[in-house]
From TrEMBL, chains A, B:
<keyword id="KW-0288">FMN</keyword>
<protein>
    <submittedName>
        <fullName>LLM class flavin-dependent oxidoreductase</fullName>
    </submittedName>
</protein>
<dbReference type="InterPro" id="IPR051260">
    <property type="entry name" value="Diverse_substr_monoxygenases"/>
</dbReference>
<keyword id="KW-0560">Oxidoreductase</keyword>
<keyword id="KW-0503">Monooxygenase</keyword>
<keyword id="KW-0285">Flavoprotein</keyword>
<dbReference type="Pfam" id="PF00296">
    <property type="entry name" value="Bac_luciferase"/>
</dbReference>
<dbReference type="InterPro" id="IPR016215">
    <property type="entry name" value="NTA_MOA"/>
</dbReference>
<feature type="domain" description="Luciferase-like">
    <location>
        <begin position="26"/>
        <end position="383"/>
    </location>
</feature>
<dbReference type="InterPro" id="IPR011251">
    <property type="entry name" value="Luciferase-like_dom"/>
</dbReference>
<dbReference type="InterPro" id="IPR036661">
    <property type="entry name" value="Luciferase-like_sf"/>
</dbReference>
<comment type="similarity">
    <text>Belongs to the NtaA/SnaA/DszA monooxygenase family.</text>
</comment>
Amino acid sequence: MSKVLQFNGFEMNTPSHINHGLWVHPGNRRHEYTDLGYWLDTARLLERGLFDALFLADVVGTYHVYEGGRAPAIERGIQSPNNDPFLVVPAMAAVTEHLGFAVTFTTTYEPPFGNARRFSTLDHLTKGRVAWNIVTGYLPDAARNYGLSEQVRHDDRYDLAEEFLEVSYKLWEGSWEDDAVVRDRALRRYSDPAKVHEISHRGKYFSVDGPHLSEPSPQRTPVLYQAGSSDRGRAFAARHAEAIFLGARTEEEARTIIRSVRDLAEENGRGADAVRFFAGLNVIVGETDADARRKLEQILRYRDTIGYLVHFGGSSGIDLAALGAEEYIEFKARGHIESAERSFSDRRVREIVDHFDDPFHDPFFVVGSAGRVADRIEELADTTGVDGFNLVQYLSPGTFEDFIGLVVPELQRRGRYRTRYGAGETLRERLHGAGARLPEAHPAAVHRHAVAGVPR
Amino acid sequence: MSKVLQFNGFEMNTPSHINHGLWVHPGNRRHEYTDLGYWLDTARLLERGLFDALFLADVVGTYHVYEGGRAPAIERGIQSPNNDPFLVVPAMAAVTEHLGFAVTFTTTYEPPFGNARRFSTLDHLTKGRVAWNIVTGYLPDAARNYGLSEQVRHDDRYDLAEEFLEVSYKLWEGSWEDDAVVRDRALRRYSDPAKVHEISHRGKYFSVDGPHLSEPSPQRTPVLYQAGSSDRGRAFAARHAEAIFLGARTEEEARTIIRSVRDLAEENGRGADAVRFFAGLNVIVGETDADARRKLEQILRYRDTIGYLVHFGGSSGIDLAALGAEEYIEFKARGHIESAERSFSDRRVREIVDHFDDPFHDPFFVVGSAGRVADRIEELADTTGVDGFNLVQYLSPGTFEDFIGLVVPELQRRGRYRTRYGAGETLRERLHGAGARLPEAHPAAVHRHAVAGVPR
């Protein structure tokens, strides 16, 4: 088996995303995230490197668990401050032709009608290169920014997300028929009103009349990414997701999630191949192993272990600063990121700090020459079954530059990386090798045939 | 008096904005509104023409009054379909340096926290070239897209808008102190947490903890545009607006609104010059008067009077198709656009149809050579006291091209139009000739000094 792998650049509109503290590195441009130039350069670079997409994470609150408040997150720039991820996409789309853009948006805080129009607009402007990373939100701090007095409970969040998606599908797939827009100049007929439908959605959480404001875009529904890995999260993903960004911290865990989602997707009638799986990947590559080691040493000098603990606090709800090194941690709060729970249950505080202190604890970390990195990437893909990777940055744009300059040619030699983009293909066509629209087996497709009524 | 006038291009992310029906004109690119290229070309053109800003209108529902439903609006493309206005701005910002962007967003349907971050993000990406056209929303159809069973009543909408702005000001002006972001690499200190504050807003409509997610942007609060002209709307504008887009249909009405808002602004301690006034302006200019007349004749052939009646129906709540030509119209529904009410009360249906059938009924319409157009523009500015105009399009980009090619040089010769942009100035600096930030007399400024607390 020698599957061609897919790569996304992993980004966030913030000074410190995943590998924390490195904004202080003299070769890093991360602190320029508020400048358009930073994003234009990143997009051009990834397209030159034939990446699939730029994957934009997001949170709408501040991590406020470590040391009992948000001061450490703010001081260290740990995903704070941050800016809206949608708004960097149109500028990047203007300087690229093929690169996709996956944008994170949570279903918990803002109404589905506005979000559906935003994604339709992006899908138009990018000519079908947009994906939605569906998250349900887990920060109590975020909920309080949107007037919710306490975080919606975990399972309720998924119920709400289900209905949010149902509304979105009705708007994207069911409101405007394929031939609703006619643009007939002689008849002065832009659209055929008999083919534009209200959705008249009445549910537990939402009431939405429609019709959708946007005319049909190339993909209609954006490519659907999802990241949840709890039981409920997997069921949700197996029903809706076209691609999953695995929160797995071990190869075994990745295998388990992939197998379980594939089985569930098949049970749902979508087929075992309906979902693509991406793992996070940390790469430090050099001309030689020794060169890569030198880069690693420099990165370790700037890396900020406390930053990781701040992030872990936000994700898990556990304040490691309040516990002794030999204490065992205990997950109480439901609704935080489940992969943290699976990976770190019944571990001592000391072990977790060690984990974040040493990147080698992460099996999805590799340092070395292009050959060594490519070997490990192939191995990870073959042992876990992932279809691709979200490449995490240490230096922006250094990490992407190194990967594109050194690893991509090596993977291309091995037949593991594309050598060109397909002409005019949408992100969905590239991801699945099929059509621009969601397949008929996807639950959104029923809304194509179940139009809600005619316009009054 | 020979005031240098300011000009915005008036746009909307839709096939037919104000001058209806003209998307069928063979020289019009309006139907390309879903393409980035359309917006990039428009932005480059307006910057070449030294315009102040592109002003983007928006509605989040469909006009559904004329003929008792939304079919005519959909068929004729009357502001339907439409796409999100925010998302075309970053792409246009990437190909311009000076042009401003005014984006319409309604305070009635989506939460203030997300909107505040969107505007902060745009203000960063544009380096301080963004304005918010604050509207309160008036379409019952829009309310039903956001789960509101009936339109929030007119005065409630303004109460809600007041609180929406209060939350926004707290986030923009009060949450991050000026020197909160330090980016001290040696100390690993991106921000000083003692200078980043929760806003802890508890009001009638909103509960928002904060802190704001975005770091301080060049203007903080975007330039505030407003368009309401009811009594309540004027009071709101006199309190908040830095620029008003007048809905006036006569010169006398423009004078009245301007005088009234100036007086109110002065009463509010903001000074009579705190607000800039813009009127809509329709121009058909040619090399000669005869050439302009030929253009007009062609435009009239494609112009769609029914489209104007559809738009009027949505704005006024009155279905002219259901009334006889000699009937008087009667405004019942509060909460529709008040200028329609003022202009058309106690008029016969026939008179209104005539009004829309003949562009010469509008005093802010002028056709002729550059000299004639410039004469009229000067006259309108001097008699009404407006500071500038939102130039409405017939043809996109033909109207802007003609204006920039013919009228701008004429106005420049007369000292009525800038001959260059100021280097690096924000939209607010250009509009008011003062600082990048809101002045101290603006109600937002109190939140700079009334921080809500320290981060826990």
